[in-house]
Write a structure and sequence with these properties.
With 524 residues, this protein is an alpha/beta fold. Among the domains are: 3-191 and 340-396, FAD/NAD(P)-binding domain (3-Layer(bba) Sandwich); 231-335, Succinate dehydrogenase/fumarate reductase flavoprotein, catalytic domain (Flavocytochrome C3, Chain A, domain 1, Alpha-Beta Complex), CATH 3.90.700.10. Helix content is 33%, strand content 18%. Strands 9-3-2-13-20 form a 5-stranded parallel beta sheet, with helices on one face. A 5-stranded mixed beta sheet has the order 21-19-14-22-23, covered by helices on one side. The protein starts with a strand and ends in a 9-residue tail after the last strand. The structure holds flavin-adenine dinucleotide and succinic acid. Flavin-adenine dinucleotide is lined by residues 10-16, 33-36, 40-43, 45-50, 129-130, 154-155, 189-192, 201-202, 205-206, 209-210, 243, 338, 360-362, 375-378, 381. Flavin-adenine dinucleotide (FAD) binds at residues 10-16, 33-36, 40-43, 45-50, 129-130, 154-155, 189-192, 201-202, 205-206, 209-210, 243, 338, 360-362, 375-378, 381.
């Protein structure tokens, strides 16, 4: 039996929760489907904080400028302006809803991260900013009677009728069977795809499902080649790559090689606070030079009490692995962390498919360009989550749900195998890490594409097919971009090229095209 609601939101991270609240505040019925428990998301694990213009020595122009510089010529200036100017209002609202950012004597405290010209990062419980934001948003959403949140409801495809997205197909956690649910519109807030790579800071839910679903529904994807690799993930054999926040370097942490040398001096004058892509590549170069698989983060010059208070979660996690951050050098190496590209949207979350919206990491609004400025994504989730909710409401409120004739065969196949098969996942993750990772070239990318195409020809479940297709989109965009820019580095094209100051656009049925701008105006 099919279900019906007013609006469907997929995902319960910062973007999904904020979009749901925007819809519910207007009285709409909102069904939130989420893959795991409600709090499981990239948002939950965000450490460093949220960038916002609230300190006395800061202003929106400075935040805008830092974001544009980090984006390496591919940000949409209007999107950036929207982010930094509206961001303050949404953070103020979060505080009003009970989010407890860290304070000193009642005044908000701000930390610094790479490529920020000011201390403008708010944080909570030291290094548990995301957890605190999720806590307060879940509480706020819980107060809205029209929000119905279903955990453990894995969604695997979108329902399309007459070129319009009219619902989704998900695994009903109670019936343990696939089910269709119809609505006036769908907002994808499924987050990023860090799990495409062998080493990642992202939790297991971050498999990029929403991007693949949107692609199969006919949506345009933009800038998929731009993956951000975070320089400092804890590197302990057989343990997940736990993030050691950039804020640790912001507070004075130093990177050393196996001989104890501070090597960043040889790579960039901004040292440990150079942009992430530069620090990640410098680490790779240093590891190669010294024949090791790790470098070290040194926090030992700092007071133990300060470290325990400032980074309590990191302190405890390192302790679990037998490391005392105030005394030991911490083994670190880069790991995939964030997708700059995604579903192409306008400034209101509208994708190129009618009835389909996207917000947060799954979307490409043009805010991040080729490289995201640290701590801009929680802010993006809030600002563009709210805007997508509002647009979905005003664009579609009068739309009538009826007996749709579905176009996508994938939505009527009774496929009981939800989730990406382990063997496929392992193979793709290794391939992506080795051939589509921090350093790329034509040969490595060609080999990756060949192997991915081969995997995609095997008999895959819908979720596995989504995963492999997404990997292919990243690899194909990466081979197309014959230059190095932001998070995308080609050994065979190490310079930035003016002719590539354009976005890669991918759409089902066409391999790749380009566009000068991501903002394409209203699509209603
Ligand atoms: P997410 O928070 O990832 O939420 C996605 C949701 O979609 C989840 O609920 C997931 O379960 C659900 N979902 C996914 N697929 C499906 C499916 N098929 N069916 C149903 N549900 C699905 N950014 C900052 O700005 N500051 C930071 O300090 C910071 N630190 C970070 C630290 C770590 C370790 C990581 C991994 C990221 C960090 N980031 C940080 C990035 C930031 O956390 C994310 O970009 C942001 O939280 C994304 O929010 P979102 O709502 O778009 O997606
Ligand atoms: C971090 O704390 O280093 C992560 C911040 C981010 O990804 O924005």
């Amino acid at each position: 039996m099919s279900l019906e609601t007013d609006f469907i939101v997929i995902g319960s991270g910062v973007a999904g929760l904020r979009a749901s609240i925007a819809l519910a505040e207007a009285g709409a019925r909102v069904t939130v489907l989420t893959k795991d428990k409600a709090s499981e998301s990239n948002t939950e694990y965000a450490q460093g904080g949220v960038a916002v213009v609230l300190s006395d020595d800061d202003n929106a122009e400075l935040h805008e400028e830092d974001t544009l510089i980090a984006g390496a010529g591919l940000c949409d200036p209007e999107a950036v302006e929207t982010l930094v100017t509206e961001g303050t209002k949404y953070i103020q609202q979060l505080i009003d809803w009970g989010t407890e950012f860290d304070r000193d004597g009642g005044k908000l405290v701000f930390t610094k991260e790479a490529a920020h010209s000011r201390r403008r990062i708010l944080h909570a419980h030291g290094d548990s900013t995301g957890k605190e934001i999720v806590r307060s948003l879940i509480a706020r959403a819980g107060a809205e009677k029209t929000i119905h949140l279903t955990p453990f409801a894995n969604t695997e495809s979108l329902l399309v009728s007459d070129g319009r997205c009219v619902g989704v197909r998900f695994l009903d956690p109670i019936l343990r069977a696939p089910r269709n649910i119809f609505a006036k519109s769908v907002i994808l807030c499924t987050g990023g795809a860090g799990q495409l790579f062998l080493h990642t800071t992202n939790p297991p839910v971050a498999t990029g499902d929403g991007m693949a679903m949107a692609y199969f529904a006919g949506a345009e994807m933009a800038d998929m080649e731009f993956i951000q690799f975070h320089p400092t993930a804890l590197n302990i054999e057989n343990a997940p790559r736990f993030l050691l926040s950039e804020a640790m370097r912001g507070e004075g942490g130093i990177l050393r090689n196996k001989s104890g040398e501070r090597f960043m001096e040889r790579y960039d004058e901004r040292l440990e606070l150079a942009p992430r892509d530069i620090v990640s590549r410098s680490i790779v170069a240093e590891m190669r030079k010294t024949g090791t698989r790790t470098v070290f983060l040194d926090m030992t010059a700092m007071d133990e009490t300060f470290l325990k208070e400032r980074f309590p979660k990191i302190y405890e996690t390192c302790k679990f692995y037998g490391l005392d951050i105030s005394k030991d050098l911490l083994p670190v190496s880069p790991a995939s962390h964030y997708c700059m590209g995604g579903i192409r949207t306008d400034l209101h979350g509208r994708s190129t498919v009618h009835g389909l919206y996207a917000a947060g990491e799954v979307a490409c609004t043009g805010v991040h360009g080729a490289n995201r400025l640290a701590s801009n994504s929680l802010l993006e989730g809030l600002v563009f989550g709210a805007r997508a909710g509002e647009a979905a409401l005003t664009d579609n409120f009068k739309f009538q749900i009826s007996n749709f004739k579905l176009e996508d065969e994938r939505s009527v196949i009774s496929n009981l195998e939800f989730g990406v098969a382990t063997a496929v996942k392992k193979r793709v993750k290794r391939l992506m890490w080795e051939r589509v990772g921090i350093l790329r070239d034509r040969e490595s990318l060609q080999r990756a594409i060949r192997e991915l195409e081969q995997i995609s020809k095997s008999n895959l479940s819908t979720s596995s097919n989504n995963f492999v297709t997404l990997a292919l989109l990243v690899a194909q965009a990466a081979i197309w971009r014959e230059e190095s820019r932001g998070g995308h580095f080609r050994n065979d094209f190490p310079e930035r090229e003016a002719r590539f100051q354009i976005h890669s656009i991918q759409k089902l049925g066409t391999l790749i095209s380009d566009s000068k701008t991501v903002d394409f105006g209203p699509r209603i």
